[in-house]
Amino acid sequence: MAIRSLGLGQSGQRRWVKKLQRSPVLRKVVLGSLGVLCFLVIWQFVCMTGLLRLPSPLNVIAETWELIVDPFYKGSGTDVGLGWQILSSLRRVAIGFSLAAITGVGLGMLIGSSRVLYDAVDPILQVLRPVPPLAWLPISLAALRDNEPAAIFVIFITAIWPIIINTIVGVQQVPKDYKNVARVLRLSRKEYFLNILVPATVPYVFTGLRIGIGLSWLAIVAAEMLIGGVGIGFFIWDAWNSSLVSEIIVAVIYVGIVGLVLDRSVAFVGRLLSHGEEPHS
Prior knowledge:
Elements: H1 2-22, H2 24-48, H3 57-63, H4 65-69, H5 82-113, H6 115-128, H7 136-144, H8 147-172, H9 176-185, H10 189-227, H11 232-241, H12 245-274
Helix pairs in contact: 1-2, 3-12, 5-6, 5-8, 5-10, 7-8, 8-10, 10-11, 10-12, 11-12
């Protein structure tokens, strides 16, 4: 009887292994969950032994339970739940990133189509591209004289460089065979743009958009720590000033999850529009 039950147990394990091998999604979910569980166990152990002077996962949950279960709490002024803080930051990101996407793709198409214009603009792009997001904040505050448009400008100027550069690369990488076919068929500029240039550059454009959305989310969190108001960045800074480390940890987890969702959303739309094609590096 014991041997039979042992055999059944082994066959069940083999079935699970086969399911994991056949289903990449299931494998990612199971292994990802195990990875998170191991991380939490190690975190809890390190905190219990005193090696790390941070609240353990259990303490974080206990101390921030009301914050977690009621994300859309509304008090007075900036005293609102994490849900409202995230939505406020997302609104700024949506405005700044949309402006950067429209402007960046348009400029990238224009610059990439002209070798003369590319040679003239490339030094400016290479100088401004590495400037850290927060370095733009004092300039935007001095120019715009208001925190809200200054924060949106920081998002815009942070996201626009990878969008422009990847769009330029996409335009320059259009195969010569495509261009020759356009000449043979005598396509108009509009037809060439819609039927050849846009489809060929979509994977590159969405690579730039994917990088840009990640930088936008990073920039707004940092900028809000300095400009104040309602937003996840200011929430983290305010929690630090109040020595509420558990709230900071929860907010950081929220920031990471939202950043992951934004990245995957842009990547998903890019795959749909480019039919799964990826640009070659």
